[in-house]
Amino acid sequence: MRSFASDNNSGVHPLVMKALERANADHAFGYGEDPWTEEAVARIREAFGATCLPMFVFNGTGSNVVALQLMTRPYHSIVCAETAHIYVDECGAPAKMTGCQIRPIATPDGKLTPELIQPYLHGFGDQHHSQPKAIYISQCTELGTIYTAQELKNLTDFAHRYGMYVHVDGARIANACAALNLSLKELTADCGVDVLTFGGTKNGLMMGECVVVFNEELQEEARFVRKQSAQLASKMRYLSCQFTAYLADELWLQNARHANLLAQRLYDRLRLLPEVRFTQKAESNQLFLTMPRPVIDELLESYSFYFWNEAVNEIRLVTSFDTTEEDVEAFIAKCSQLLYTHSSPRKS
């Protein structure tokens, strides 16, 4: 199966698989007291800064739950875009686990700004109102758009003025760095981010994410929160060893550049076809577009992808580190054939 449905559908990079095989040797102490985890922590601190606290967890929802619990108490509120993963796709886990009110904000492109958030920051000190405490953003966003470093700095400066924290869900942080030609540190710690989910599952890892805590005020309780959230792996080495391979020789960046490049190729070719309209900027490895419903239905017979807004025939296409040029060319050829067939006048 070749899929444009999600980068979650991609396989495991061979170098990551080799790292897992190497870690699967002999016995090792559990819960992170092993040399593979020690090496991975060192690699992450090289990439993000020596004072950060890396914590490996099982999955993306778990990482968001851990990060947001560090920042909040149940009487707080968490601000996010209305398209945010924590609001749309995590079955209420962040609200349940934090006890916080989630405040979604409408955005045209999935990106929050201080101006959009400002009207929601009120009731400070009033015991009748949930207290705004955390801002959640995704990088890249759920609409494939990307926060620049300056936009991130503006958000973190704004949040910190109000005594709030910023959590970046970096499930696709590699794609953002590749697009902006910035390092991981330049797009996180240097921007004042408090906590990051450093994702890799969508970019060549088998499983697992890493919660990277930059704000030293939040580090003391972090390990306890991870344990209580059922995100502490006993056989930690199988999570951590992947990140060593991921960061070695910038594999994370190579994979993301490849995915972005093929998404751009899809965009460049598809936008020339009749009745194809893109609904968001093509900035990462996610594309959002509309085309006639009969064409979509026929494409779904050969390819896997998701509707984003079925009411307006909007679909999402996602490329991965293992998407090939042949995949792209075949998809474009099929689209072209179907679009021209459906748009050509029929003889009576």
Structural commentary:
- By secondary structure, the protein is α/β, with parallel strands linked by helices.
- It folds into two domains: 15-250, Aspartate Aminotransferase, domain 2; 251-341, Aspartate Aminotransferase, domain 1.
- It is built from 13 helices and eleven strands.
- The chain has helices at 14-23, 35-48, 60-71, 85-88, 93-98, 114-117, 149-161, 173-180, 222-228, 237-247, 251-270, 293-299, 325-343, and strands at residues 53-57, 76-81, 101-105, 131-138, 165-170, 195-199, 209-213, 277-278, 286-290, 306-309, 314-318.
- The strands form two sheets. A seven-stranded mixed sheet has the order 1-7-6-5-4-2-3, with helices on both faces. A four-stranded antiparallel sheet has the order 8-9-11-10, covered by helices on one side.
- Strand 10 (306-309) and strand 11 form a beta hairpin.
- The longest helix has 20 residues, at 251-270.
- It is globular.
- The chain starts with 13 loop residues before the first helix and ends in a 5-residue tail after the last helix.
- The mean pLDDT is 95.
